[in-house]
Write a structure and sequence with these properties.
mainly alpha, Arc Repressor Mutant, subunit A, elongated
């Protein structure tokens, strides 16, 4: 998935919402169509423009010129550039969360579950670098209902990741382990997010490993430290293929 593929699922902004088309309502759960694919193309263009100019510097007129859609048409379907940013963010975070939830049942243990989480995150981010820069730089731009919905998805993802680390600690240290230090799991998860979310600033596919190997390297450093252990890490044999 080299670029954002944001079709029908992206245009759902709330339960029961529909998208207007030629004066009639189009169900947000309708099968993929040429109409939906066109919406996805426009959102791809929007991500490119936000990437190049920043959210504040971009305009609906920029998007109209780049996409070939009239300015009136853009406002009819999307209302504002804030709605576009919201759709890009929601698609990205929802996709990462949904894929993680689909992959975790295949984990062979707590450490494997953490590795699955890291691999899932890195795979998507490497494949969607443009959107990642937009999300990183415009994380606090959305306000009111849009921002609240995005924050809700992010909190759920954070909650799952903290739970994975708590399970790993219990498995490694046993039931009689001392309690973690204050905010230990919060610090660990947010530090891991920092490692993963900013790879777009330096990742170069011509010299850096592919997403799978990169995820394994980050997982090794996160779990074992930069010095690691004397023995090579155990490579997880099973792979869970979850399509978008």
């Amino acid at each position: 998935m080299g670029r954002l593929n944001m079709a029908t699922k992206l245009v759902r902004s709330s339960a029961g919402e529909s998208v207007r088309s030629n004066g009639s309502e189009k169900s947000a759960t309708a099968p993929d169509s040429r109409f939906d694919r066109r919406l996805g193309e426009i959102l791809d263009v929007a991500a490119d423009i936000f990437y190049e100019k920043g959210y504040e510097g971009a305009s609906m007129r920029d998007l109209s010129r780049r996409s070939g859609m009239s300015l009136a048409g853009l406002y009819y379907y999307f209302e504002s550039k804030e709605k576009l940013l919201y759709l890009i963010q929601r698609h990205t975070f929802s996709t990462v969360l949904d894929r993680l939830q689909a992959r975790l049942p295949a984990a062979t243990g707590p450490e494997d579950a953490v590795r699955i989480m890291i691999r899932n995150h890195i795979e998507y981010f490497v494949a969607n670098m443009t959107a990642m820069k937009v999300l990183s730089h415009e994380a606090d731009t959305l306000k009111n209902g849009f921002g609240q919905e995005i924050q809700s998805i992010k909190r759920e993802y954070y909650r799952i990741c903290v739970g994975l680390l708590e399970d790993l600690r219990k498995a490694q240290l046993g039931k009689n382990a001392p309690p973690p230090r204050k905010n230990e799991h919060r610090t660990a998860v947010l530090s891991l997010f920092g490692m993963m979310n900013w790879i777009y600033t330096w990742y170069n596919p011509q010299v850096d490993p592919n997403s799978e190997e990169l995820a394994d390297q980050i997982a090794d450093m996160f779990l074992n430290g930069i010095l690691g252990e004397g023995n090579p890490r155990r490579v997880r044999k099973s792979r869970t293929a979850v399509e978008s």
